[in-house]
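Thread: quick sanity check before group meeting

JM: Hey all, I'm pulling together slides for Thursday and realized we never actually wrote out the predicted structure for the chain we discussed last week. Dropping the sequence here so it's in one place. If anyone has concerns about the input, flag it before I start.
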Amino acid sequence: MQAQAMTREQFWQFADKAKEATEALAAQRMQVLEHLSPDALRQVCIQYRFFTIDYISDLALLVARLPFGGLRSLLGQILAEELGEGDPARAHPTVYDRFLATIGVSPEELEQPLTANERILKGLTRDMANHPIAFGVGLRGMGGECLCQTYLSVMFEHMRRNPYLVANADRIDWEFWTIHTGEEDIIHGELTRAAIDEYLRHDPGVLPELARGYERSISAWNLFWQNILDACTPQLEAAS
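JM (edit): ok, ran it. Output follows.
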């Protein structure tokens, strides 16, 4: 992508194609969730929690660096929701941990990130701090609210067909998935896109850095999930 020569309209065409490609890749990859053993499925779900936690910290950094305006206000609102709007029991990582507990994950297992993914997340935080703010908007504003929702929706679609989750559906806490795969998160994505579009209209000069940040988010997000699924594949083969 030649970001320097790209217009705002061309950028959104690129972003739409990138999201479609991400959805297709996620659909291909996530099919495996339907057949994983309970232990392997738990490991997949555990690894996602680390993205959720780091996303909140990076989003806070992004909000702090943005100038006053619509994008800062919107992302600040999303950050508040992620943190439970003043109620720690409603903070999304806490809600997600309740889901994990109901599928049999012990507290001791909650602090075991994949080394490769830990490096990815630290790299994203480093990039947030060391690049222009527009890069961070593409990296965590667009990447977090647009790409993340795509992967989570596909993940949930396939995961809920897993025999273990089907058999235990009545006792599982699904609140996290209700929040992140329903209308609320779709609206977040649409509002984020509109706010970023206004950000570009106000200052077209930020487009190259924003585009580079979004590309970085795409590659990091895809590698993050590839690492998780690669780590679980041996368990799937052993169970089959």
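AS: nice. Residues 236-240 have pLDDT under 50 and may be disordered. The first helix runs from residue 8 to 30.
JM: adding both to the slides.
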